[in-house]
Amino acid sequence: MSIETDILKEITKLAALFLPPDRIARIIEMDAEEFKQALIDPKSEIFRAYYVGFDKADVELRESVIKIAKQGSQPAQDQVKKYISELKAKLNE
User: Fold this and answer.
1) Would you state the pLDDT for residue 1?
2) For the chain, which ranges sit under pLDDT 50?
3) Residues contacting residue 9 through CB under 8 Å, at least 6 positions apart
């Protein structure tokens, strides 16, 4: 299945806003089940577009949280500790 470039860009943009897959499917006028199936196939264009948007936005948020944690924000420091704990748990799996 080949998806138009503008649709893939829209998927990336919407994923960066952390919209759930069913809402993205509605916005791009695609069957929700078909969209969800594409999201579990790492070879699909939809998978790549979705996770590029999602992951880049996640990185940007983490950078912001770490920056304000370094400036002394206690809630941000708590969040960074959570990131570290989650990473350690994954590394020990």
Assistant:
1) 58
2) none
3) 49
Separation between Cα atoms, residue 13 and residue 59, nearest integer Å: 14
Residue 63 in tokens:
């950078």
Supply the pTM of this predicted model.
0.85
Residue 24: closest CA among 49, 42, 43, 4: 49
Residue recorded with tokens 């990185």: 59
86: left (phi over 0), alpha (psi -120 to 50) or beta: alpha
d(CA 25, CA 17): 14
- Rounded CA gap, 30 and 23, in Å? 10
Mapped onto helix, strand or coil, the DSSP state of residue 36 is helix
